[in-house]
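Project outcomes to date are best conveyed with an example. Our students and postdoctoral researchers have been running inverse folding experiments weekly, and each run begins with a structure described purely in tokens. The record below, which covers 527 residues, was selected by the lab manager from last quarter's runs and is presented without edits.
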């Protein structure tokens, strides 16, 4: 079939069907559905005097039993950390979809959580026990309103992926097209909503208990998690997310990215049929190199596409990880799983755009103001006072040139000051930061010897040359005309101004050294 939809969408060139946005019956009333879904969230997150007792007891029992078994069997052994991670992963699986999704989020924060926990929780992306096939068939027939045989000539019983909210089956339509079918797990919606009530009750109790939790803003994190997972329960919204991102990639001429075509008619609240696209696993660098694919270019395209969507349109894929990406033999990156999609309101998009640009031009006050406008500080915060109090006019400390105790003391003092200003991680920024952490970790696999300083220059140049006029309209000509400040870029990597280049491998080695030094330091006496 001739792909006549490529001008408007970043789709594959071999079209199993053509998308006509005016002929998609499942889109009828979708804007109202999205609004109603979001309107339901405040009721789910309203804090009650008591948590849902039965569900809370189940959670405490599952996690508590995992900790008890770890302490009896693994604590103090060489494999202690791995044993704890394995038991927690199994407990999360037992607790079901909401906690599996939380585990998936933890697995995306490589470098923040212990490696053993991250690697173990990666299994929650697509290695969760599937639902009985009979229940899947019944749900598909109920949603589509006809027997399976009337729609599919083939439908694999064993799913090709099974995760928290849904599982994915390979299939073939009676009309011959090869597809994948995403099927929501039965009963998942009720369980997710009950878990959100429990999490909303717990999250305020974490504020101020420990500095990191306070800065992470647990209530906002639960709110963000709730916004995403509630919308994820309606696959019609996910299909619309697919079209929106495919349209943005096309509008920015980002043809290195590919979105599978959702089916024009076979989409309901709990079933999503889309074209099947295959490629190399994102971590399979050896196979990509053998196929002549430049993995550094793959990484750069992913970063630029993510930035363009967020900064220019306020929409971006919100759940990047290795299980949601493959690289086609052509070198194009194919994205999957659009249930979690970031959507920034216009004020937040503009603030985020200012934040990124001021970061590359060395405008620290501009970064603080942008963070305030995104919600990191109260709106009445005096930026100049924060700037001076945090000593941001001074060169950053080199963690390798001070003692571990001094480093810990500096970090504790910084956190204490930030908390004093009411600092919180902006809810709208959390999803994007998670994506950046994934891309950061992917650099170790795809391009460990990439010159990071040069790459920042490349990305900055791309935005000023390609989107300079649009950015000038958004923020003013004076902002886009400011040159990149290489000293500030180098300072962000914690390297000296005379450093010519720094690779990801070198930064990782610095990180390992710092963590090792801090791990050997007794800081229990510090407040």
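After processing, the design step wrote out the following sequence:
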């Amino acid at each position: 079939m001739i792909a006549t939809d490529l001008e408007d969408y970043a789709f594959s060139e071999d079209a199993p069907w053509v998308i006509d946005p005016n002929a998609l019956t499942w889109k009828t009333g979708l804007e109202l559905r999205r609004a109603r879904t979001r309107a339901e969230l405040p009721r789910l997150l309203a804090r009650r005097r008591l948590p849902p007792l039965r569900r809370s007891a189940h959670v405490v029992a599952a996690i508590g039993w995992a900790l008890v078994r770890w302490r009896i069997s693994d604590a103090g052994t060489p494999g202690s950390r791995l044993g704890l991670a394995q038991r927690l992963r199994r407990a999360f699986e037992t607790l079901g979809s909401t906690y599996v999704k939380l585990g998936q989020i933890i697995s995306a924060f490589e470098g923040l959580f212990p490696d053993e926990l991250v690697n173990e929780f990666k299994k929650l992306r697509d290695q969760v026990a599937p639902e009985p096939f009979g229940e899947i068939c019944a749900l598909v027939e109920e949603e589509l309103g006809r027997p399976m045989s009337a729609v599919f000539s083939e439908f694999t019983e064993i799913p090709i992926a099974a995760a928290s909210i849904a599982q994915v089956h390979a299939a073939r339509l009676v009309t011959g097209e090869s597809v994948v079918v995403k099927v929501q797990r039965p009963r998942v919606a009720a369980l997710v909503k009950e878990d959100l009530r429990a999490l909303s009750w717990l999250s305020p109790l974490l504020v101020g208990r420990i500095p990191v939790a306070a800065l992470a803003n647990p209530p906002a994190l639960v709110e963000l998690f709730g916004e995403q997972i509630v919308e994820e329960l309606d696959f019609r919204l996910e299909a619309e997310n697919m079209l929106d991102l495919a349209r943005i990639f096309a509008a920015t001429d980002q043809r290195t990215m590919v979105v599978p075509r959702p089916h024009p008619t076979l989409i309901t609240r709990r079933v999503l049929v889309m074209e099947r696209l295959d490629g190399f696993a994102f971590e399979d660098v050896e196979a990509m190199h053998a196929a002549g694919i430049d993995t550094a270019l793959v990484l750069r395209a992913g970063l630029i596409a993510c930035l363009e969507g967020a900064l220019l349109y306020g929409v971006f894929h919100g759940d990047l990880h290795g299980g949601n990406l493959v690289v086609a033999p052509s070198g194009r990156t194919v994205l999957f799983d659009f249930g979690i999609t970031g959507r920034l309101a216009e004020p937040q998009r503009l603030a985020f755009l200012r934040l990124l640009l001021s970061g590359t031009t060395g405008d620290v006050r501009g970064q603080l103001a942008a963070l305030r406008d995104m919600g990191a500080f109260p709106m009445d915060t005096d930026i100049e006072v924060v700037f001076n109090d945090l000593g941001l006019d001074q060169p950053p400390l080199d963690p390798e040139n001070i003692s571990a105790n001094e480093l810990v003391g500096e970090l504790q003092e910084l956190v204490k000051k930030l908390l004093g200003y009411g600092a919180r991680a902006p809810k709208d920024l959390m999803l994007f930061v998670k994506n950046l952490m994934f891309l950061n970790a992917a650099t170790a696999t795809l391009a460990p010897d990439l010159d990071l300083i040069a790459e920042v220059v490349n990305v900055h140049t791309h935005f000023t040359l390609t989107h300079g006029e649009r950015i000038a309209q958004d923020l003013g000509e004076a902002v886009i005309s400011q040159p990149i400040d290489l000293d500030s870029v180098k300072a962000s990597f914690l390297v000296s101004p005379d450093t010519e280049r720094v690779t990801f491998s070198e930064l990782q080695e610095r990180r390992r050294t710092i963590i090792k030094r801090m791990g050997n330091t007794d800081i229990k006496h510090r407040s």
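The first helix runs from residue 30 to 45. The chain is about 55% helix and 10% strand. The training component of this project remains on track.
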